[in-house]
Design brief:
By secondary structure, the protein is mostly beta strands. The protein has a single domain (about 30-70, about 75-135), classed as Roll (Thiol Ester Dehydrase, Chain A). About 10% of the residues lie in helices and about 40% in strands. The chain is built from one helix and six strands, in the order E-E-H-E-E-E-E. It has one helix spanning about 55-70; strands at about 30, 35-40, 75-85, 95-105, 110-115, 120-135. It has a six-stranded antiparallel sheet with strand order 1-2-4-5-6-3, covered by helices on one side. A hairpin with a 2-residue loop joins strand 1 (about 30) and strand 2. The longest helix has 17 residues, at about 55-70. The two termini are about 15 Å apart.
């Protein structure tokens, strides 16, 4: 029921929407207390010099955090997010995405997101996002 795939309001989402022909189409799942996904950037995700555009990495981090809420039956919107890029990501690098709840108070939820290069387990980017809960839980 809480799978974004098949949700009419998320089918065109740039990151997780299965019907967006230009999107990333990432599937998200809960694994214990973490939301997880994987992403291998291709040629359409390029910034320059065969490096992945930072906005693509941010989008994946934002969605791994937002989907942590969604997979708990909660809908929230990003109110603020801070990203720290730690290492460049080359096209073709498989990234492991992870989102976790840091704290929640009322309608405010703070989450963390990480992107790790699968080949060497290097943290390439991390984010902390504040989400405004609009319905559910």
């Amino acid at each position: 029921m809480n799978d974004p795939r098949g949700r009419p309001d998320a089918n065109q989402c740039f990151v997780c929407g299965p019907d967006n022909p230009l999107g990333l189409r990432l599937p998200f799942r809960m694994d214990g207390d973490a939301c997880r996904s994987e992403f291998t950037p291709g040629p359409f995700h390029c910034g320059y010099d065969r490096l992945v555009h930072g906005g693509i990495i941010y989008s994946a981090l934002d969605d791994v955090m937002a989907n942590w809420l969604f997979l708990q039956g909660v809908r929230g919107h990003t109110a603020r997010c801070e990203v720290r890029y730690r290492e460049p990501v080359e096209l073709g690098d498989r990234l492991l995405l992870e989102g976790r709840l840091i704290r929640r108070k009322g309608r405010i939820a703070v989450l963390s997101g990480t992107a790790t290069r699968a080949s060497d387990n290097t943290l390439v980017a991390e984010a902390e996002g504040t989400f405004m809960v609009v319905d559910g839980g």
